[in-house]
Amino acid sequence: MRSKKMRQASVAALAVAGLVLAGCASDDGDTSETQSAGGTWPGDGNSNCEGLEQLADFGDLTGTTVGVYTSILSPEQEQHEASYELFTECTGAEVSYEGSDQFETQLVVRLQAGNAPDIAYIPQPGLLQTVVGSGLAVAAPQTVSDNVDEWFGEDWKGYGTVDGTFYAAPLGANVKSFVWYSPSTFEKNGWEIPETWDDMLALSDEIAASGMKPWCAGIESGEATGWPATDWLEDAILRDQGADYYDQWVNHEVPFNDAGVAESLDRVGDILKNSDYVNGGFGGVDSVATTSFQEGGLPILDDNCAMHRQASFYGTQWGDGVTVAEDGDVFAFYLPTTNEDNGKPVLGGGEFVAAFSDRPEVQAFQTYLSTDVWANEKAKATTTGGWVSANTGLDVANLVGPIDQLSAETLQDPEAVFRFDGSDQMPSAVGAGSFWKQMTAWITGEDTQTALDNIENSWPAS
């Protein structure tokens, strides 16, 4: 999974494209006509291909190759490639994988040069809208649309839809609405996992009274400093104001400095700007701005703090020899709700499968990636952990990492209301600019209204 600090490359891509981003459509929209190579489907009679009968529509694809372009590099690349072996067995088509650490920038360059890949894994809805704006993206075939309707929530399909046309099925996912903690420390002190936000604050008071700082945090991330604080605010808005309000805020139908946003930022401030609560292991409140996000939660290991809010991908930051499990050195719990009327909000991210060709083998590969079969093949191929999908057909038992299993259970919870990271959907001048900068200024002393006014005033006029 990619962290938000990686968005710097996509900001450059958006500047190259020169396109204005709009909010994702929620309509499931048009699809492209299914193409077929003819001939007998190679999976016919092969028991390994059960559950993939849709692929018969594309005929015999032997001798063809599908090119995939992505930001996902080794060791994840090898795990992805292993998950494609069943596709080749059942269709005859090969998959050529190309990973790049300059993906977002180079994808737009390639589109402008007329050198589009067959398939690209897009890590943000905003970038998907940019590539659709190039006029080169191809609507997903009906088989993909049907699979997404069956295996994913409506919200996920909306993020792959632009101007009423469905282009891109979800691929991987991550959950940001987590609080990391030490199970042994909680057990030793008799602390219970909080069920509500008020419970979490009461626990924070109890921990502070014991002499330990309840929270540690870090928002430093080079040029992307501030992004972890934006996640805090996004999670709070979802909990306080609800998903509809959140969507309106992301699309600037609600001003950035609206009273509801200020209420939620003040709620975050009750933790992050509270000198009784932070910054365990690092110093005072100001140290939050100078502590790297990679190091932000590490004082939990030394009992210098008790809790750290960060995404599922933070599981890779704990270092060698640290066991991430419910009975291990560290684990995570769901960031509690503030308003039961707003369901169980889940903030997260993920990738989407966009195509630039409607050749039969390309459509077949899109279809394969949108199935429950592929989700389980990918889970079994990811032997080191660190991957999850929002596909409800994913068997959680096939995920080897406890935090991956927790993430999948969170995403599959019928009460979950998923929303994509807000700043990844906003115009880059805000989402990767003023929002990051003003959250940093707010942490170091700027008041709530001034910070929000400054972000509102930075929103592009058109």
Can you lay out the helices and strands and say which pair or pack?
Layout: H1 7-17, E1 65-70, H2 76-83, H3 85-91, E2 94-99, H4 103-112, E3 119-122, H5 125-133, H6 142-151, H7 154-159, E4 161-162, E5 165-166, E6 169-175, E7 178-181, H8 183-189, H9 197-209, E8 213-215, H10 227-241, H11 243-250, H12 259-272, H13 287-290, E9 305-309, E10 331-334, E11 344-355, H14 360-369, H15 372-381, H16 402-412, E12 416-420, H17 428-443, H18 448-458
Helix pairs in contact: 1-4, 2-15, 10-11, 10-12, 17-18
Organism: Nocardioides bruguierae
Region (Disordered): 27-46
InterPro entries: Bact_solute-bd_prot1 (IPR050490)
Helix-strand string: HEHHEHEHHHEEEEHHEHHHHEEEHHHEHH
| Share of helix, binned | 25-40%
**What is the total tally of β strands?**
12
Give the averaged pLDDT, no decimals. Answer: 92
Radius of gyration equals 22 Å
Strand content: 5-15%
The CATH topology label of the largest domain is D-Maltodextrin-Binding Protein, domain 2
CATH homologous superfamily title of the largest domain: Periplasmic binding protein-like II
| CATH hierarchy: architecture of the largest domain | 3-Layer(aba) Sandwich
Family: Belongs to the bacterial solute-binding protein 1 family.
Keywords: Signal, Transport
InterPro entries: Bact_solute-bd_prot1
Protein name: ABC transporter substrate-binding protein
